[in-house]
Fold this protein.
Amino acid sequence: MKIAILGTRGIPNHYGGFEQYAELLSVYLVKEGFEVTVYNSHDHPYRERTYKGVQIKHIYDPEKKIGTAGQFLYDLGCIMDIRKQNFDIVYQLGYTSSAVFNFLIPNRVTLVTNMDGLEWKRSKYSSKVQRFLRYSEKLAVKHADQLIADSYGIKAYLDEKYGCNSFYSAYTADIPGAYSVSYPERLALEPGQYNLLIARMEPENNVEMIIRAHTDLPGQQLILVGGTGTPFGKIMVERYGAYPNIRFVQGIYDKDEINSLRHFSRLYFHGHSVGGTNPSLLEAMACGCNILAHNNIFNKSVLESDALYFSDEKELQALIMGDHDAFFEKSRKNNIVKIETQFSEDHMFSLLKEKLIDCVS
């Protein structure tokens, strides 16, 4: 079976969740005997034509030159190339800039779309863009032969709103083999003496709420890992960069390094509020982090009772200053069991593989 994966900047991962997912899934499917092609942006740092058996197609991506419109042109370029190929399945990650072109995908191809989160809820978008994203969501549902929901919260939303039967398939994570204190020490961090947030600098990730909860707590050091080049990221640095206990660190993509930072943190914050199952959250669970999460259905469907939840700055401050050692000792173990059973690569990808086979049978 020939499968194309599009909707990311490409593999290996140098950016975020969908890229990491595409990398892991494509390599897994190749090992299972599938022929897999992943579409990469032309300026992706990996220049080879194959990656661990996965075929790589580089398509011109003008996003850096012309901004958001470039995403649409990149997706259009990928789809136009797909029309020349002989794929059985096109696995589309996201829909925001590609759904308007889905009518160009040949009818002989089975289109499987991973819907990601509720993109139209992101406040960084204007009301006009939010209306477009709602429209794009409808188009994605209309043209897809199978919808994939990466959380039970997203599945419930899709099935209720559109009367469909989406397939639940979340991201995966592995338990790291070892951790090294040398990684936090490189950043002059003492194990157990810093709090950690790993996220894109976007309002919906409640970055500012988490920062503000620390500004009145000078004894609590907060490390923020994520690119600050976005407009919101620049605002956060301008507002809070001078606080001695608030420290911005750019994206870290070395798995050993980022996992060690997670493992040796005192508290780990997950403020995401509009997406599905976030891979960074699963990795925090796998690393045995003490997790404080924003109180919403997406996070609760993953963490269940094995996290402390906050809805506002005051709640978060109280949790930061509280003594929760007994709770975290239990929750860390429970979350690791979840990773080993519910969110392991073998478990999640084997179910998805069978679904993909079923889609074309």
User: Anything to note?
Assistant: The domain at 182-341 is CATH 3.40.50.2000 (Rossmann fold). The first helix runs from residue 17 to 31.
